[in-house]
């Protein structure tokens, strides 16, 4: 009897140990997001939707989103807070990937995540120097202290957007341009790329300045120059400043076409008729006009009661491609996930069929052309 009880206890113990062994530790994905702005909340909602659709697990591993707010009232997209989030993620051995947003933020956080061997994924960072040479001294090597490429983005870089924007300007008949930008890395970089390509297309650059809404002399210079096109490169917290400046110019009789990059677009605003003729390139298609994104758009509207922005779509795509890599990774460690991202190959997603190149850049090159029509930003045409 004692023998049979002993055998039973051993069996029970083995069963308990086997059950424990069959339940691996959860995998954490750190997300650094500007949660205090509507666009940031939409992007976070899109990422959450993608993970919820996977039932919160990959194989036998449960998934956890470790969310950091990377902005505050003063700086909605803070490189300092993004770097803090990266350090916290790097220190947690259960974190296998890190998602963050703007180019300025990635510049601050990528060296930290790279040193830790973490996949660093962005749905929106477009600065070319994060992956390509020839844009700023030391780039891109300064972002990869461990010598391995660990950064991936699902949107085209600004060298693609700047070229397409200049081609669009030429196609619209621009022969002269005045260029303004705010003081951010994104805005200045895109403006520089646009300027170089405008010259190559025989568009004369009449001026190149950083803008404010209160510089009367700058406003006078623009009006006096009388360009065919005013190119305004801005993003984030500077959008209201840019819009106010446009209103002032229009009130003073400036009627030329105004164009910018995707940072100029704010689809949350309406009644923009006062801005006149304004267009912009957009690195992500409109999810409401993209057949391959129809299911996402419907699910997002059903869950959150609002139309998803293009950057919500790119955030969803980033989450989905990461989930695919997590499923393929063996072992499901930081190195295993990195290896899976690097050998992912062709991916069929909401944005179509694409893949990461050797630098971690997407092979997608299509850019959307948007314009203000009937007082709101609306998709106008596809550009290449």
Features:
384 residues, 7-stranded mixed beta sheet, 6-stranded mixed beta sheet, Rossmann fold, 2 domains, alpha/beta, globular
Characterization of the model:
The chain folds into 2 domains: 27-156 and 289-350, 3-Layer(aba) Sandwich (Rossmann fold); 158-282 and 367-383, 3-Layer(aba) Sandwich (Rossmann fold), CATH 3.40.50. Helix content is 40%, strand content 20%. It has 11 helices and 15 strands. It has helices at 2-21, 38-53, 79-91, 103-115, 158-171, 185-200, 216-225, 239-251, 294-304, 310-328, 334-342; strands spanning 27-33, 57-58, 61-69, 95-99, 119-122, 151-153, 176-181, 204-210, 229-233, 257-260, 278-282, 347-349, 352-354, 367-373, 376-383. A 7-stranded mixed beta sheet has the order 8-7-9-10-11-14-15, covered by helices on one side. A 6-stranded mixed beta sheet has the order 2-3-1-4-5-6, sandwiched between helices. Strands 12-13 form a two-stranded antiparallel ribbon. It is globular, with a radius of gyration of 24 Å. The protein starts with a helix and ends with a strand.
């Amino acid at each position: 009897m004692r023998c049979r009880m002993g055998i039973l206890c051993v069996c029970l113990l083995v069963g308990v140990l086997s059950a424990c062994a069959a339940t691996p530790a959860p995998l954490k994905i750190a997300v650094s997001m500007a949660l205090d702005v509507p666009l940031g909340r939409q992007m976070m909602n899109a990422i959450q939707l993608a993970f919820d659709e996977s039932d919160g697990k990959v194989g036998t591993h449960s998934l956890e989103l470790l969310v950091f707010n990377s902005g505050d009232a003063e700086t909605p997209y803070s490189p300092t807070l993004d770097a803090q989030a990266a350090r916290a993620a790097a220190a947690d051995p259960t974190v296998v990937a890190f998602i963050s947003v703007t180019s300025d933020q990635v510049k601050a956080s990528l060296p930290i995540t790279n040193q830790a061997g973490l996949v660093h994924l962005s749905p929106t960072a477009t600065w070319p120097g994060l992956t390509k040479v020839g844009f700023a001294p030391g780039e891109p090597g300064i972002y990869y202290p461990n010598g391995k490429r660990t950064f991936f983005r699902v949107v085209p870089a600004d060298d693609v957007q700047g070229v397409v924007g200049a081609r669009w300007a030429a196609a619209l008949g621009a022969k002269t341009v005045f260029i303004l930008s705010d003081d951010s890395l994104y805005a200045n970089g895109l403006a520089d790329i646009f300027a170089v390509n405008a010259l190559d297309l025989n568009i004369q650059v009449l001026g190149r300045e950083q803008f404010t809404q209160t510089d009367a002399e700058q406003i006078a210079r623009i009006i006096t120059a009388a360009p065919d096109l005013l190119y305004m490169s801005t993003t984030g917290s500077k959008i209201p400043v840019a819009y106010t400046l446009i209103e002032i110019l229009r009130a003073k009789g400036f009627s030329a076409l105004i164009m910018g990059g995707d940072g100029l677009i704010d689809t949350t605003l309406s009644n923009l008729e006062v801005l006149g003729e304004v267009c912009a390139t957009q690195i992500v298609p409109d999810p409401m006009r993209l057949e391959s994104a129809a299911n996402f758009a419907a699910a997002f509207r059903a869950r959150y009661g609002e139309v998803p922005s293009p950057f919500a779509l790119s955030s969803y795509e980033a989450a989905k491609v990461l989930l695919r890599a997590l499923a393929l990774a063996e072992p499901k460690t930081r190195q295993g996930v990195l290896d899976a991202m690097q050998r992912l190959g062709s991916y069929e997603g909401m944005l179509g069929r694409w893949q990461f190149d050797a630098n971690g850049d997407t092979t997608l090159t299509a850019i959307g052309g948007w314009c203000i029509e009937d007082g709101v930003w609306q998709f106008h045409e596809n550009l290449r």
